[in-house]
Amino acid sequence: MNDFNVMYAADEETPRQMRMSELVDFFNSNGMWSLFRCNVAVVRAILEGRGWYTGVNDTGEFLIINMDKFHLPATSDPVLMQPITPRR
Questions:
Q1: DSSP assignment string, 21-53
Q2: Are strands 52-57 and 60-66 parallel, antiparallel or unpaired?
Q3: What is the pLDDT along the chain (88 residues), one digit of tens a residue?
Q4: How many Å apart are CA 33 and CA 2, to the nearest integer?
């Protein structure tokens, strides 16, 4: 399974840069796969194909960008590099 850099941004959340595996763990911990009726295989295939994915979560819309596909450089911004944590 290919692990690549992604940028996750959502309404009312600080954007985060992480590995796809970290995003999968975050979605698993929040039950977000069932929320927008999708699964990791579909999202991964879309990100590896066209390079971006949009969806809806409990706070609004979100966007995931495959940074590697678009040759976007990794950031050193400490805010964007903070671990993403599940909402309770």
A1: HHHHHHHHHHTHHHHTT--HHHHHHHHHHTSEE
A2: antiparallel
A3: 589 999 999 888 888 999 999 988 888 887 777 666 678 888 999 999 999 999 877 778 889 999 999 998 887 776 666 766 655 5
A4: 19
